[in-house]
Structures are given as C-alpha cells and as structure tokens.
Amino acid sequence: MSVIRQPGVLGRTTRRRVVGTTAALSAAICETVAVVLWFWLVVGSTATSTALAALGILFCGALLRAGLFEATVSSLGDFVHPRRLGAAVAWTTSWVVWLLVAEFVGGPVGVAVATAGLTILLVAQFTVERRVFRAGQVYDRQLVPSLTAVVPAVVLAAGAAALLVTTRTRFADWMLVSPPVSLEVTTIVIRIEAVHVGIAVFAICAFLAHQQRFRRLLSSDRCSF
After folding, report:
1. Stretch 4-31: mean pLDDT, rounded?
2. What is the reported pTM?
C-alpha cells in the first residue's frame, strides 16, 4: 500500500533497474571484447608487437569500463582523470597476473590457482573502485570488502576459469559440427569449438557480475541516481 500511495517510488525503482541492466550489459560487452581479444592475441602469438597491441586493447577496454562505472554510480568526469587511469591500470594488471599464473603453474592446478588469485584481485579492485568513484554509501569510505565486491568477483572469476578450461586443459579438444546445409551457391557448416563455449560463458558471467554489482549500488538510498 505504501508503494501505491507513493508512485514516485515505483518509478524510481524501475529507472534504477533499467539503468543498472543497461550499464551491466554495456560493461559486460566492453569487458568481454577487451579480455577475449587480449587473451586471443596473447595466446595465439609470441611476437612482442602483438603482445603490446593486445595489452593496449586491454587497457583501452579498462578505461572504457571504468568510465561506464563512474557514469553509472556518480557522474562522468575527465576521460583521463587520475582515478580512472589508476582503476584501468589495476584492472589490466589483474588480468595479466591471472594469465601469467595460469601459464606458470599449468594444467588444471594452474586454472584453479589463477582463478583463486583473480578472485582476490577483483574483490580488491571492486572495493577500491567503490571507494574512489564515491558510490554514495557511508561505509564506502572504508576499504572493507562487502557482498557488492565479493559476489561479482566470484562470478566474473568463474567466467575467466571457463576461458582457461576451454583453452588450457583436455576439455579443449572437443568440437561440435553440424551436418552440411546446402544452399544454391554454397554449403554451410556450423562448427562450435570449446573456446566458443568458454567465451559465451565468460560473457554471461560478466553480465551477471556487473548486474549484481550495479543492482546493489543503485539500490542504496544515498546513491546519486
């Protein structure tokens, strides 16, 4: 009954859900494109120039992602603001460390260790971002991990684990091929490899992680939205 008496509350809640979902989808697309392109270029080539180009793609994606987060929870500032650059560097470093650990340890153990390490790094990343970009809550002044950081970090790290599992273990050897479909001028064959499933799982996990994060932040009574 209280919601019916205050129609503005329902409208504000709906707007928050729309903004949160849109921001989560945008951040997930940005993160998926940046991480997958970087991962594919680094894994597929040993050239220094390719590695640097891949790192540049990852960093640009990190800047865009930080901008999306800042614009959603507060207000959009300068594109090269120090706090956004710092968040982008930390995010880029987290993914580089994740892959280095996986490569160094190797095998299923490497996947497990890298995933655990990435989870810790992401929790720290999300906690610091919430403080730096002033998400609007009183306890944001304390660098204490909360569910707003832990749950999305675990979900996103699980998606990263799917990438590693589908490219670094024995599960990467399978492939699904559809029967040939003949058209007038050509024949179409749909081929689904393990890495394609890994990319899809990562994209879904990225969306769910960001949706969970934005939902909790935007639902705060002190949020600027």
Report:
1. 73
2. 0.81
